[in-house]
Design the sequence.
């Protein structure tokens, strides 16, 4: 083991001890009411800010470092898409969700559509989260691998076990305290990274890189399809960002949550800019690597002494924890609380906490297994997780919020159809992280199937009692959605070849279908009579038992 490895391990162990100590404090706070799942809903704007910054900006920093090493400044678009997501959640989502006292997305689906929907959505959501955790943990694992020679798989296992230890203690309070500590570590990492940049390559080195590789300084070098997928994924994720909701909705009031999210958007700017700078610096000093997260420690080893490199990668460790801890905890909440409630409806709050702690152990095991299967491809796990979760839960969440007509059978059918369609499409593409079957990203196929299924089954089941509203004055938005879908269909038809070549046909198909979904919700909002609606719901309730 090199001296760099000893310093890195020493800092990681000390930080681990501090986190475990925090866990013992947070255990007392989590014992009160719903403190384990949502921190007793007592977080102020700063705690919300720190939690969201650690979740989104920490993971974004890791992604941008790797992307900017490989593709240049176009990686900034990833951060822009993530920032827009945070702002939309702040201005549009946090208020209504806080008033509904939402804990999880799967819980919201289950509350509206029954135990079967709760169990299916909770299970799919839960098993997606360890995949996201693995994807980010690989960043720290790469540094450990370079400095110590320890395998990537063992390093991921170490990360998973740490998450399990301190999340067991205090749930959401453990996350809040840890994210607060992470903010200080992030600051240290940024200072050290800036020092490294000015030592080598400096501004002159970036100018030389621009001459040698001008594509690295083009804002579209990563590819239009990839950029569109980033924005599309983050925009869709606005109503599905369960881990973010669980932290932000732990706020005292909706106003506190909104302030915290706005602050997090501002705090995220340095993560975007400096992540790009550090990735470009590594590309200038250590070119030619196929793995940006491996090139970064190799670059810093050439520039800084071992103690400073160790401190820098303690920041990467904090990024991995900042994303992985909320993901593991939110997944465990869906599995323990939501699936537990679906299987055992008479379970007490104390039993649900127990189920959640057991679920943490299960997801820890899954994270270790995932890390052993594909440690070198973080993008692969991200795509699989997005495809699984979004393909199953997108349309049901929209229906739960805006379409009371949707039936329980339609919701369950849409989750199954969306999930299977997305996974099948990924399989047809050979499970590759950057090349997809028919040049269409599997998440667009899965969510499209999700939307079509929920509409078709609902309309068929409710055909005899549908209330149709075609009034130009009250259903104007429905006509706007239809006209917009027609325009998109015309563009897709006229420019099919370039859109297909650019990998944009999938998002066009999804956009057209979501506009049809919107128009259907507006034109057919309910059933004709309250009595008919009551009979329909009674029938569905009996079928659900």
Sequence:
């Amino acid at each position: 083991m090199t001296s760099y490895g000893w310093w890195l391990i020493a800092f990681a162990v000390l930080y681990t001890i501090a986190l475990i100590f925090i866990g013992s404090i947070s255990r007392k706070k989590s014992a009160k009411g719903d403190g384990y799942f949502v921190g007793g809903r007592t977080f102020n704007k700063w705690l919300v800010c720190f939690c969201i910054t650690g979740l989104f900006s920490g993971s974004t920093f890791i992604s941008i470092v790797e992307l900017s090493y490989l593709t240049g400044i176009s990686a900034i678009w990833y951060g822009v898409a993530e920032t827009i997501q945070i702002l939309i959640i702040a201005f549009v989502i946090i208020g209504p969700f806080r008033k509904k006292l939402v804990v999880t997305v799967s819980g919201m689906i289950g509350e509206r559509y029954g135990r079967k929907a709760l169990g299916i959505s909770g299970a799919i959501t839960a098993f997606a989260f360890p995949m996201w955790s693995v994807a980010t943990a690989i960043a720290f694992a790469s540094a450990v691998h370079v400095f110590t020679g320890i395998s990537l798989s063992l390093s991921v296992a170490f990360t998973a076990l740490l998450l399990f230890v301190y999340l067991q203690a205090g749930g959401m309070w453990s996350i809040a305290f840890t994210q607060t500590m992470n903010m200080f570590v992030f600051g240290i990492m940024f200072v050290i990274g800036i020092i490294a940049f000015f030592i080598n390559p400096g501004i002159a080195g970036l100018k030389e890189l621009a001459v040698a590789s001008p594509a690295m300084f083009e804002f579209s070098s990563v590819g239009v399809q990839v950029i569109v997928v980033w924005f599309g994924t983050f925009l869709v994720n606005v109503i599905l960002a369960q881990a973010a909701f669980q932290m932000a909705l732990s706020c005292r009031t909706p106003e506190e949550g909104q302030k915290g999210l706005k602050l997090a958007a501002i705090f995220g700017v340095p993560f975007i800019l400096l992540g790009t700078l550090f990735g470009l610096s590594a590309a200038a000093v250590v070119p030619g690597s196929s793995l940006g997260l491996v090139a970064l420690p190799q670059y810093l080893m050439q520039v800084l002494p071992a103690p400073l490199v160790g401190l820098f990668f303690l920041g990467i460790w904090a990024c991995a924890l900042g994303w992985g801890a909320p993901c593991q905890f939110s997944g465990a909440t869906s599995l323990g609380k939501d699936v537990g409630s679906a299987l055992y409806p008479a379970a007490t709050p104390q039993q649900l906490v127990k189920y959640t702690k057991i679920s943490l152990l299960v997801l820890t095991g899954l994270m270790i297994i995932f890390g052993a299967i594909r440690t070198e491809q973080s993008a692969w796990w991200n795509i699989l997780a997005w495809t699984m979760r979004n393909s199953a839960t997108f349309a049901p969440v929209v229906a739960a919020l805006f379409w009371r007509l949707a039936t329980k059978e339609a919701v369950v059918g849409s989750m199954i159809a969306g999930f299977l369609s997305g996974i099948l499409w990924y399989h047809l593409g050979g499970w590759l992280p950057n090349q997809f079957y028919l040049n269409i990203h599997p998440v667009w196929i899965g969510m499209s199937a999700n939307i079509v299924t929920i509409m078709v089954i609902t309309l068929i089941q409710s055909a005899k009692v549908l209330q149709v509203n075609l009034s130009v004055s009250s259903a104007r938005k429905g006509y706007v959605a239809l006209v917009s879908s027609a325009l998109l269909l015309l563009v897709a038809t006229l420019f099919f070849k370039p859109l297909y070549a650019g990998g944009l046909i999938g998002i066009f198909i999804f956009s057209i279908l979501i506009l049809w979904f919107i128009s259907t919700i507006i034109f057919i909002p309910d059933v004709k009579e309250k009595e008919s609606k009551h009979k329909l719901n009674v029938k569905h309730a009996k079928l659900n038992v």
Remarks:
- The chain has 22 helices and two strands.
- The first strand starts at residue 466 and ends at 467.
- Strands lie at 466-467, 526-527.
